[in-house]
Specification:
Helix content is about 50%, strand content about 15%. It has 4 helices and 2 strands. β1 and β2 form a beta hairpin. The protein is of the alpha+beta class.
């Protein structure tokens, strides 16, 4: 008979809302915002990206909001795509 794995959903939810998880999300989103800003500045724009991190009922969510100093949205999107690897390097 095969054994069955039953996840502890309450423990998982607690972990996903923990202060440590929030701090990790904040560090990673800030790293992406900083890298995107640097990429945008390299193209001659101001590079004004910002982060938004919130703790919801089920988990912490983080977002990097695009650069509105550029009249060209593709500049912001391209910089964000290039910056995603910056989050991998952050612990």
């Amino acid at each position: 008979m095969a054994s069955r794995f039953v996840p502890n959903r309450q423990a998982i939810a607690t972990f996903l809302r923990s202060p440590e998880t929030r701090a990790l999300i904040e560090r990673k989103t800030q790293a992406v915002a900083d890298a995107a800003s640097a990429a945008t500045k390299a193209e001659g724009w101001r590079g004004q990206f910002r982060t938004d991190v919130e703790t919801g009922d089920r988990r912490v969510r983080g977002a990097v909001i695009g650069d509105y100093s550029s009249p060209y949205p593709e500049v912001s999107r391209r910089a964000l795509l290039r910056a995603l690897d910056a989050a991998r390097a952050v612990e």
